Structure formats: structure tokens, C-alpha cells
Amino acid sequence: MDLGRILTYFIESGREGRKVDLKRELHLETKSERARFAKDVLAMANTSGGPGYLIIGVVDLKDRTSTRPEDYISGFAPTDMDEFERTIQQTLEYYCNPPPVAHLQEMIHPTTGRTLGVVVVPRSQDQPHMVKVDGEGLRANDVYVRRGTATFPASREELQRMFEKRGELPVLISMSGKPITESHLQQLRTQLGRPVDEVISIPHELDDAQPYAPQILERVRQTGLTPEEWASLPIVLNAHPLSPANAVLMAVVHGLKGCFPDVIRWRRVGNTQEYEVAEILHPQPLRDQAARSGIV
Predict the structure, then answer these.
(1) CA 125, chain centre distance (Å)
(2) What ranges in 96-242 are assigned the alpha helix state H?
(3) Among 61, 119, 282, 74, which Cα is nearest to 191's?
(4) pLDDT by residue (tens digit) across 42-98?
(5) Which one-letter DSSP state was computed for residue 162?
(6) Residue 128: CB partners within 8 Å, gap ≥ 6?
(7) DSSP 136
(8) DSSP per residue over 139-181, as a string?
(9) Is the dihedral of CA 16, 19, 252, 195 positive or negative?
(10) CATH assignment of 3-158, given 2.60.120, 1.10.8, 1.10.3210, 3.30.950?
(11) Which pTM was predicted?
């Protein structure tokens, strides 16, 4: 696994993602520290998408006071790496039912030469992972998930999805500037035949005085999705209304996924200023048909 390719953006930007958590340090000496760690891993394991990563030895963006890597790369150097790994496994066995799979890896930060620790939480087929025993901030039988970059108790619908083993649910990436309402989510559920797992809203304004491509690339990075998630998750795109920006965005997403995502087409409701979901467009089959026949 090329951790550098997967995690460099998050490490250098200081931004976290739905499956990426940055920690300046990680201590597991006390029960409260172990309980907090178990909660983090439970949430990662219960959240759909690719593997989760807890990166140890990196200061996140909100706590950075400098742009120098020497200042935001604190490094990870436990006294005994094997003992630290055993503590991780014992902690998950004690607090979690069933215990999620997790393993500790090391990577060298290329600029500072400092070692980082990465707790990798592979995609789980054993959801939901529940709290086994009470602990600080934990209550037996609770289930946690990540929404955006924060951890929350799972909703009834999220629990139902886990129990039903419905597989990966679509992630809606919204760059249109239009708010996504509960009514829209219900319309999408009808169109897609399944609920949207998460809505990731990205700023839509573009600076017309600057090239579009770098701006679109930055907004794609702001989704917080890892390369594995781009390649594996069902993604529905609510794109920027400007056609040139859409073309650039679709090219970037195609490069990440290896295919075109489904796209929402909006329709005005009568003569009002309200909009509804008209249909879900499927560009990839059209692309494939054109490639086979040379004509649509």
C-alpha cells in the first residue's frame, strides 16, 4: 500500500476527511485515552467508503501556527512499536463488538525525515461495530459513525443500512451552490432506488479572472475523499452550473474514478424559484456506446 500517494494531500494541507483523521500524538496509557481511541476506530469502521486512516504525528490545519513542515510534523516515536501495536489490538478487543480490524504502519515524511504512524482501518464487512463496555465517552451497545470530519452516534437509518448489508450507498458531491433539502434527498432516493449516504457540499464560486482547472482541482481535494473512495464509491455529482467548469470537473472525476459519475439534472417547479430533481443522468453508458459504435 502506497501510503504516501494516498495521504500526502491530507498531511501537507492539514485537512481531514470522512475516512482520514490527523492526530498530533496518540497515547494509550490510560483508560480514557484507550476509550477515545476505540471510539475513533469504531466510527471509521462503521462509515462506508474505503479504508480509514488515523495519522499520528501531524498537526491539523486549525492548530497550525506555521507552514514549515518542521513545525506541523511532530512525528511518532513510541518506546516499543510492537507493544504499541499490541495495545491497539487489546483496546479494540476490550471496547468493541465485534472488534474492527486495524493495523499500525509507519511512513517517513519525505521533507522532515520524521516517522509518522498510520493506523489503517480496512473497509469492514462486519458492521455495525458496537461499544462492548462502558468507558469515558462510551456507552455499551452504542454505534458511532463519521459524518464529514466529526464522530456522531449512528442514526436509526444508518443502523438499518448496516444491518441490512445494503452495500455501498451513493455519496452526493454538491458544487452547485443550491442547498440540498430533505425533499431533494427523498426525490434522489426515488430516482436512485436507495438513499444517499452523505452529502458533501463544496464552495461553488469560481474566480473568472483565474484558470478554472486549478480551482476545480482544489474543490475536488476539499471533498476529503481518499483515492480508494474515489475509485470505489458510487458518486452522484451535483455540478457547478457553468458548463466550462463542468467539463473540467467531469474530467478530474473521470481520472479519479476511471469512469464518469452519475449527474443530477434539476428542473424548475412551475413559475416559482424552487427546483426539483428531474432525473439522474448516466454519462458513462453513453460514453461506452459512443466508443463502441463511433456514434451515439
Answers:
(1) 17
(2) 156-164, 182-192, 212-221, 227-232
(3) 282
(4) 999 999 878 999 999 999 999 999 999 999 999 999 989 999 999 999 999 999 999
(5) H
(6) 46, 143, 154, 159, 162, 163
(7) T
(8) -TT-BEEEETTEEEEPPHHHHHHHHHT--PPPEEEE-SS----
(9) negative
(10) 3.30.950
(11) 0.75
User: CA–CA separation, 139 vs 38, rounded Å?
Assistant: 12
Q: How confident is the model at residue 220 (pLDDT cuts 50, 70, 90)?
A: confident
Among residues 153, 36, 147, the alpha carbon closest in space to that of 88 is found at 36
Q: What percent of the chain has pLDDT over 70?
A: 96
Q: How far apart are alpha carbons 9 and 218 in whole angstroms?
A: 11
Count CA within 13 A, CB hemisphere, residue 228. Answer: 19
* 63/149 Cα distance (integer angstroms): 15
Tracing cell 434527498 back to the chain, one arrives at 185
Cα–Cα separations (whole angstroms), residue 199 to 148, 181, 237: 9, 10, 10
pLDDT tens column, 156-184? 888 887 876 666 778 899 988 778 998 99
Q: Which residue has the cell 443502523?
A: 159
Instruction: Provide CB contacts within 8 A for 117, sequence distance 6+.
Output: 26, 55, 56, 57, 76, 78, 84, 104, 105, 106
Phi-psi region of 224 (alpha: psi -120 to 50; beta: other; left: phi over 0): left
C-alpha cell at 83: 507493544
Please count the helices (runs of H) and the strands (runs of E) in the chain: 10, 13
Task: Classify 137 as helix, strand or coil.
Answer: coil
Angle at 134 between CA 131 and CA 137, to 5 degrees: 85
Distance CA 142, CA 154 (A): 8
Instruction: Parse the chain into domains and list their residue ranges.
Output: 3-158, 168-293
